[in-house]
Amino acid sequence: MCNFAHILMIRLMLAVNAIFFFDWNIFQRLDILAWVIGIPVIVAALVWLYVQRKQTALLREDLSQLTKIKRHPIEYELVLKTMKLAIWRMDVATRVVTFDCDYRDATDSIVFPSGAKLDDVVNMMMPAYVDHFVKSANELITGRTDQVHGQYEMRIPHTDRVYWSETYAAIEKRDLKGNPLTVVGTTIRIDRQKQAERELIDARNHAEESDRMKTAFLANISHEVRTPLNAIVGFSNVLPMVKNEEERAQLITLIQENNAQLLRLFDDLVHMSRLEAGGGTVKKTRFKVKTLLAEIMEEYSQHVDASHVTLFIAHTDSALEVFTDRDRLAEILRQYVDNAVKATTEGEIVIGAEKQELMLHVWVKDTGKGIPEEHLNEHLFERFVKVDEFVPGTGIGLSICRSMALSLGGKVGMKSALGEGSLFWADIPIE
């Protein structure tokens, strides 16, 4: 038996050698038994070699994929951290939301616990956004849409604060019938984006309003210039023809008043241009405040009907001296008094000043028609703003007051009630 096996092995080796090396002499000497047994063995060997080579290639590919997978979580995590994203999943059947990771800002105060339900998200949402959110969520859960996107204003739990959230969500898995099983989504805080949007909208609205007011100012300034100029030219032409001294005196007075009005208008324009160009140089001197108030009262006393309006200085210390820019303080008071004279047809206009620690507090109070409540805001001190379009003026007086006060390190303000009069004040630092 051993001899037969030995002989068979030799014949197989000869057959393999004949096939691989194509030895014709061996082909001739092999019998049928060697061929019957040798050929299947050779075929099996070839198949085995092919399979081994294929498995080696697959193994090499798997190792390459494994290396990529090992690198992927690091890159993935870095992207999420950089974008400050939260990744979450929701089981459609239970409506339970779980977070895979959350790199949003202030997560300790804004995020509901992982494992909470969809209703918890709705409870955190501002009422104005609930309907849109519920509608989008239902469309996704029922499979009517593959993905949704929305921006929502959310409440921070147990506080009155809110934040903005942007969410993208899509169906991750479906069952055999096509019904959604799980939903995956991302959420990011967009507070800064919304703040930037608000600032851009405010800036655009402010620019549009400024442009509108500037157009109105240009139209108004032409009227303000033309009115006194026409009076000056007209009365000057009539004056030589008038012989009566009393009538001539009246015409001269009217010319002087209109000339002063025109000069005042140009002064305002010069002040505005100077302030826009940088404010000029602050020149501080030491002076008595009551003397300045008396000069302003004397200047405006001729512009009011003394039988109906009284101008006077409130109790002010005659010895009060301050060290600041006299011209700028005087300009603030003139603008305040000028507005009071225009608004008051009966009653009184009071001007006063007092020292409050390191500040000089000055004010002008009138019993005029007052200002409607809707205009009682900071915009009243902006350029070209007029409360009453029928009252003469350019709408730049109060903006000059504010700019003058700011150039001295001070501030301005006012109080008013419709039908009760107004109080305008300024606080100026003194030494």
Summarize the topology.
Elements: H1 2-21, H2 24-29, H3 32-83, E1 85-91, E2 96-102, H4 107-110, H5 118-124, H6 127-141, E3 147-155, E4 162-174, E5 180-189, H7 191-238, H8 245-276, E6 285-288, H9 289-301, E7 309-313, E8 321-324, H10 326-343, E9 347-356, E10 359-366, H11 397-407, E11 411-417, E12 421-429
Parallel strand pairs: 7-9
Antiparallel strand pairs: 1-2, 1-5, 3-4, 4-5, 6-8, 9-10, 10-12, 11-12
Quick recap:
Helix content is 52%, strand content 22%.
Descriptive overview:
The chain is α+β, with helices and mostly antiparallel strands. It has three domains: 31-83; 85-195, 2-Layer Sandwich (Beta-Lactamase); 280-430, Histidine kinase-like ATPase, C-terminal domain (Heat Shock Protein 90), CATH 3.30.565. The protein has eleven helices and twelve strands. It is elongated and about 145 Å long.
Give the biggest beta sheet.
5 strands, antiparallel
Number of strands: 12
With strands numbered from the N-terminus, the spatial order across the biggest sheet is 2-1-5-4-3
CATH superfamily caption of the largest domain: Histidine kinase-like ATPase, C-terminal domain
Helix content bin: 40-55%
In whole angstroms, the N-to-C terminal distance is 130 Å
Element-by-element helix/strand order:
HHHEEHHHEEEHHEHEEHEEHEE
How much strand content do the residues show?
15-25%
Average predicted confidence as pLDDT: 78
What general outline do the C-alpha atoms trace?
A: elongated
Just name the CATH architecture of the largest domain: 2-Layer Sandwich
What is the rounded Rg? 46 Å
CATH topology (fold) name of the largest domain? Heat Shock Protein 90
What is the count of distinct domains?
A: 3
